[in-house]
Amino acid sequence: MTATASATRIELLSASGWSPVCDWDLLVPGRGIAVLLPDGRQVAVFRDGNDRLYASDNRDPFTGAYVLSRGLLGSTADGRIYVASPLLKQRFDLVTGECLDDEDVRIAVHTVRAA
User: Fold this and answer.
1) Domains and CATH numbers, the chain
2) For a designed S-S bond to 106, which of 22, 27, 53, 97 qualifies (C-beta 3.0 to 4.6 A apart)?
3) What predicted TM-score, i.e. pTM, was given to this entire model?
């Protein structure tokens, strides 16, 4: 999604509806932040260089560490946006959750918007 000039906060969709998670200005293009949801889950929220937003689980399934928010964004030759884990460098597609380096592994992705 591309944000509008009036967008000031980022919201994540959960079972109970849209919840604010951070201010737009906290998201640096190409990087992420970790947010703690009311149910105790950690989610990583990312903003790419084109101001599109993505959200995924923050837990790296290979190590069990909650670090994906510290990973760097990149894109494949065919335009798939991914986050590379800062630990073992596996890449996760931020639209589908698929691990680009091991097809048997996935992370959950979440719906996010600027409001």
Assistant:
1) 9-114 (2.102.10.10)
2) 97
3) 0.90
